[in-house]
Amino acid sequence: MNMLAFLRTSRSFALTMLSCLLIVALSSYQAQAQSKPSTAKEKVTIAIGTEVLDASQVNNTSLPTYTKCWEKEGLDVTLQPTNSTTAMQAVLSGQADFVNMGPAAAIIARSKGAPIKAVYLNMRHNFQFPVVLDSSPIKTLADFKGKTIGVASYGAQMVQIFRGMLSEAGLNPDKDVTFVETGTGAQAISALVHGKVDIWGTWDSQIATAENQGIKLRRFSSPFAEKLNFGGSYFVRDDMISKRPRVIEKTLRCVAMGSLTALTNPQGALKVHWQVFPLTKPSSLDDATAIRQGLHIINTRNDFLKLEPGVQWGEIPASAVANMVAFMKAGNVIQTSPKLEDLYTNQFIAAINDFDHPKVIAAAKALPQ
């Protein structure tokens, strides 16, 4: 063989060997990549229908964060506190995956064709009430005539509930009262205390916050409002139910575990909330007073989280949905009744409750006191 032929043969052999080595290396890399679990977490955005992330929100915000429950489920969760109207629009527009809010706005939207549905019942009773100062001459719902009611926002669920209560009392909510936006927190409390509004429309934890300040309040309800067991819930778009069912299960399983934890150890949950959201701890109070007031907020909310006998976390009773629809229709809030099956589903409840309850209770008891 002459030198030229030898070189050609050697070059061909070298290229062949190099190709084989590259194929082996690539195959080995692909095999290793497939054998290693992906560390990328699926992004999830939860819009919350309140701008106040006080201790009442511990079960669905700070506890899943502190325990790394969402992280362990492979989720990267972002919380977006805002008002109910903005929160729902964020979900409908695809800017958020979940919205945690009262059901009235969703029922109205669904009756108009919006693809939104409840998948988890967080608060199992009506938690929104009109209140007055204990010294107020207003004694009954009939006394609301001619008065001004301060509300968080015009689109908040409480407006629809109050309208229904007023109609039940024989008043015309469009003519006999005036609703004004006073926001939430200190500014809303101030509006009531300083007489800018006659009545304050609010919810359980905000009432507890005002009581912590020494403000004595009286709240109003009505026979029908007492039947409203379709409280604050998690809603998603219809397409998420079909396309991302596992994400729904994982996200809300952590909320269920958070609820069980908060009920088991309220004080430990409070300490966790302050650790995750340090600015929510009152800086002007000594620890004993801060704990006492924080526990008042958490225990007030826990009364609305407690399960009825035989019910699972997040389960939505058909009767609760039917009562809410009937209440809203009677108050002329909606003109047509959507099909109940279009408003909610319990298809994820079994998976959401698929966790070690005794283990969660033990972990809750071990939280810092």
Offer a few descriptive terms.
alpha/beta, five-stranded mixed β-sheet, 16 helices, 10 strands, 47% helix
What do you see in this structure?
By secondary structure, this protein is an alpha/beta fold. Helices cover 47% and strands 14% of the residues. The chain is built from 16 helices and ten strands. The strands form two sheets. A five-stranded mixed β-sheet has the order 2-1-3-10-4, with helices on both faces. The protein has a five-stranded mixed β-sheet with strand order 7-6-8-5-9, sandwiched between helices. Helix 6 (157-168) links the parallel strand 6 and strand 7.
Question: How would you summarize the topology of this molecule?
Answer:
Elements: H1 3-35, E1 42-48, H2 62-66, H3 69-72, E2 75-81, H4 84-92, E3 98-101, H5 104-111, E4 116-121, E5 128-133, E6 147-151, H6 157-168, E7 177-181, H7 186-193, E8 199-203, H8 204-212, E9 217-219, E10 233-237, H9 238-243, H10 245-264, H11 266-276, H12 287-305, H13 318-330, H14 340-343, H15 349-352, H16 357-365
Parallel strand pairs: 1-2, 1-3, 6-7, 6-8
Antiparallel strand pairs: 3-10, 4-10, 5-8, 5-9
Short description:
The chain is of the alpha/beta class and 369 residues long.
Anisotropy-based shape: globular
- Proportion of residues in β-strands: 5-15%
Classify the helix fraction into a percent range. 40-55%
In spatial order, strands of the major sheet run 2-1-3-10-4
Spatial extent as radius of gyration: 27 Å
Secondary structure: number of strands = 10
Q: What summary fits the major beta sheet? A: 5 strands, mixed
Amino-to-carboxy terminus distance: 88 Å
Number of helices: 16
